[in-house]
Amino acid sequence: MADFREEEALGKVYDARLMARLLSYARPHWKALLLCILMLGVSVGLDLLLPKLVQLAIDNYLVLGIDDPVAVEGLTRIALWLTVILVLGFVVSYGEVLLLQYTGQKIIYAIRKQLFGHLQRLHLQFFDTTPAGRLVTRVTNDTETLNEMYTSVLVNLFRDVFMLIGVAIMMISTHPKLAGVSLVLIPAVAYYTRFFATKARDAWREVRVRLARINAFVAEHVNGMRIVQLFAREAKTFAEFAQENEAYNQASWRQLMVWAVFRPILDLLANITIALVLWYGGLQALAGNLTPGVLLLFVTLARRFFEPLMQLAEKFNILQSAMASAERIFMLLDTKPAIVDPPNPKPLGRVSGEVEFQGVWFAYNEGEWVLKDVSFRAEPGQTIAFVGHTGAGKSSIISLLCRFYDVQKGRVLVNGIDVREVSTAELRRAIGLVAQDVFLFSGDIASNIRLGNREISDERIREAARAVGADEFIRELRLGYDEPVAERGATLSAGQRQLLSFARALAFDPPILVLDEATASVDSETEALIQRALKRLTAGRTTFIVAHRLSTIQHADKIIVLHKGRIHEQGTHEELIAKRGLYYKLWRLQFAEREEEEQADPAVQVAPNPSV
Q1: Which of 252, 291, 295, 376 is deepest in the core (most CB within 10 A)?
Q2: Angle of helix 494-508 relative to helix 524-538, nearest 10 degrees?
Q3: CATH architecture of 355-430+514-523+542-603
Q4: At CA 103, angle to CA 101 and CA 109, rounded to 5?
Q5: Residue 243: phi, psi to the nearest 5?
Q6: Strands, E, within 72-147: which ranges?
Q7: pTM to 2 decimals?
Q8: What span, in angstroms and rounded, lies between the C-alpha atoms of 302 and 525?
Q9: Which DSSP string corresponds to 345-389?
Q10: SS3 (DSSP) at 414
């Protein structure tokens, strides 16, 4: 079975179906591309005029001698024409390259924009099963590979065709017999090029796979360097890397051998062609049937004829890479979102906070039920807590409420409307989620609370931070709310990141608040700050709390105990303690653990609970 870190198997060197889709992105820019092709034709024509002018100078004027005024005048005129053609060729080539690169960037801009927009619409399960690095590669490296295909292959291929046709026409029109000698090796070149294409494709594929393995190995072990060093795995890890590195080295060497043979053999065939031209053309010149200028012209044209073939290796590599990148990009674009808005979504209106689950059954994988016939109702302003062992289905309830996933059976209602009948944007605007794993973006403190919403003023940001106790540590930072935030908030503690997520939720002021293990990774002091802020956070809004620390949910209006995907019991803290059921066992277990901590460390004080 293929490792998910490896590069996918490559498709055909040229796939007409993929090329048709790629050309559809170029269609809106057909006028610019057509102009580029015309400019290429002009550039090739000017390029071919240069050896023709040299031939005319040799045959018409050099033979006359220095004393002949006609020769001097003619050579001067031809030199001026050469200068004009060179300058004109430069201007045309500059304009063609500029226009082509500009058009290519516009095409790639559209593809990249469509790709990232599609990624944002995909369901969370897709991201749970797809490595993030692979998606980044699709949006960056793969799209840039397509840019090379559009600019270096698609349009410049016309230059090669124009050059081959132009050289052939000029040869045949000048001297048909010598043209036949010049083109006699074309069948051998065609056969060899086809043979090379097969070998190069196989070598390129192996190098790509080996490189993907090395990249994955390095990324994985750099991220896990703490574990490598902690368990003294440096020598073993180095040996594994050396093995992967050697495999990549061997694959690269085989690829280099293919490329190393192609160009010299093509050079050999080109030189043999020139030798044949010199031999046959020289004999014809000695017999008086051919001028020296025409012989020089054919030698030059023979070299020009092989130039596009010399560049075939590079174009083949780009085309192969482009086909592979296109296949992966279109595979991603063809992935259908599992969560889609209805054609005519119902408006939620003013969300009061009323939430109801009606006979909900849910499974991530078909037949493996995570939630089984779950039903409950949350009135506006109530605080509902979910507790239970790991895997009981607590976080799944939150995911269904936010419609990250859809239920298989039953309904989830907000304001009495099935969440599948409203737009996801309107639904999620009504819900504020504070998760255990807080994600912070690069930027500053204020932008991470505001999240780009300019309707949230700076004063509102500070007010939210003060309400949850985050303002104190923010003001201690060198730049305060303008303090830069490193990637994923690496320069902040777990507790500080959690407080910022609380401030973020409060700043958006949602009618429904979800706290998913929001205090699991904070210390006791930070937890005390959060507990004081909870009253402010939950005031006037429906709140759902998922918690392992039962001390944080004692004052919830309703506690729902989940066990193996079903509601085992529910009630207030006092009611559940009195039942002496599963909740009571969980409470006693945590209470006993804290007593052990107190005995091990007298500094830890556990306040007695009158309910127990």
Answers
A1: 295
A2: 0
A3: 3-Layer(aba) Sandwich (3.40)
A4: 100
A5: -65, -45
A6: none
A7: 0.72
A8: 83
A9: PPP--S----EEEEEEEEEEETTEEEEEEEEEEE-TT-EEEEEES
A10: strand
pLDDT for res 519: 64
Name the one residue in this structure whose structure tokens are 């086909």: 323
Per the structure block, which two tokens stand in for 500? 């910022």
Closest CA to 609 of 554, 561, 569, 559: 554
- Residue 609's pLDDT is 42
Kindly give the parts of the chain with pLDDT less than 50: 1-11, 595-596, 598-599, 601-612
Of the candidates 507, 504, 501, the one whose C-alpha atom is nearest the C-alpha of residue 460 is 507
pLDDT, one tens digit per residue, over 208-263 is 778 777 877 887 788 788 888 888 888 999 999 999 899 889 988 888 888 778 77
Residue type, 16: A
Other beta carbons within 10 Å of 399: 20
pLDDT of residue 204: 72
**Which positions ≥6 away from 583 have C-beta within 8 Å?**
387, 550, 559, 561, 569, 576, 577
Assigned architecture for domain 14-174+318-337: Up-down Bundle (1.20)
* Single-letter amino acid, residue 425: A
From the options 3.20.20.70, 3.90.1150.10, 3.10.50.40, 3.40.50.300, give the CATH code of 437-509.
3.40.50.300
For residue 356, give Cα distances in angstroms to 415, 561, 565.
9, 16, 17
The tokens describing 593, both together, are: 């653990």
Two tokens, residue 242: 């050396």
What burial class does residue 429 get, using C-beta atoms within 10 Å of its C-beta: 0-12 exposed, 13-18 middle, 19+ buried?
middle
Residue owning tokens 């093509």:
266
